[in-house]
Amino acid sequence: MNKDQEILLKAGKLLPLMEEFYSLQGEGYHTGKAAYFARIGGCDVGCHWCDVKESWNAASCPPVHADQIINHAAGYPAKAVVITGGEPLLYNLDYLAKGLHDKGLKTFLETSGSNPLTGQWDWICVSPKKGCPPLPEIFPIADELKVIIEEFNDFDWAEENAAFVSEDCILYLQPEWSIRKSMIPLIVKYIQSHPQWKISLQSHKYMGIP
Predict the structure, then answer these.
(1) Taking a C-beta distance cutoff of 8 angstroms, is the pair 157, 148 a contact?
(2) Three-state secondary structure of 134-181
(3) 96 three-class SS
(4) Confidence class of residue 53 from pLDDT cuts 50, 70 and 90?
(5) What was the pLDDT predicted at 54?
(6) Bridge partners of 106?
C-alpha cells in the first residue's frame, strides 16, 4: 500500500473489503430481513471458532473506495446495509456511515466493541469476546447484545456484559455453531430461568445462504 492509499485508509475513504453480498440477516433481532452485507477485513480478536477466519488478515483483502461500497449498497431494493467483519471498528467508519445515510440507507453495525466507535448507526449489535472485551463506552450505545455460548461459563460472561448495557438493549444468547446440538438445550433451559434473554440462531446456515 502506497502513502496515498494509507492516507485514504486513515480517513476511511479506503477500506479492505473481504466480500460483499445481498442476503437475509441470519442472526439476532433483525433475523429474516433482507440487507446488503459488506465484510471488512482485519480482526484483533481472533476467536478460535470464527467461521470467517479468512477475514482476519486485512492485507489479503483488496482496499476499495468506500464510495464503491456505498453505491453497491444503494443498488439493492432493501435499502439496508450491514457492516461486519472481521472487526470493522479497526477503521474510521465516519465517511462510510455518512455516505450510506446520504443515500437513504438504514445502517447496521456488527462489532465486538473492542475499538472506539466511529460513524453514526441506526443499529449497533455488540458481540463481546473474552479475549478482547468491549470498551466501556460501547455498552450504553448497544441496541443488541449477542453473546456466543460455547461452554457453561459463557453464561456468566453474558451476564457480566449485560450488566453494562442500557435497559432498552435486547439480549441474545447464540450457540456456537459447531456444538449447537449440545448447547441449544442448555440455552433454552437458561432462558427459561432468565427470561430477559432471547435465543439467536444462525438461521442463514440452516437455509444454506450467505
Answers:
(1) no
(2) CCHHHHHHCCEEEEEECCCCHHHHHHHHHCCCCCCCEEEEEECHHHHH
(3) helix
(4) confident
(5) 78
(6) 80
Residue 49, pLDDT > 90, answer: no
Could you read off the pLDDT of 179-192 as tens digits, one per residue?
A: 999 999 999 999 99
Q: Residue 119, SS3? A: coil
* Distance, CA of 197 to CA of 142 (rounded, Å): 15
**What sections of the chain are H helices per DSSP?**
3-10, 66-74, 94-102, 154-162, 180-193, 203-207
Peptide bond into 86 cis (omega under 30): yes
Alpha-carbon span 146 to 110, nearest angstrom: 10
Domains, the chain, ranges and CATH?
A: 3-207 (3.20.20.70)
Q: How many angstroms separate the CA atoms of 118 and 87, rounded?
A: 12
The average pLDDT across 63-81 equals 97
Residue-wise pLDDT for 126-178, tens only, equals 999 998 999 999 999 999 999 999 999 999 999 999 999 999 999 999 999 99
pTM of the model: 0.95
How far apart CA 6 and CA 138 sit, in angstroms, is: 27
Bridge partners, residue 84, by sequence: 39
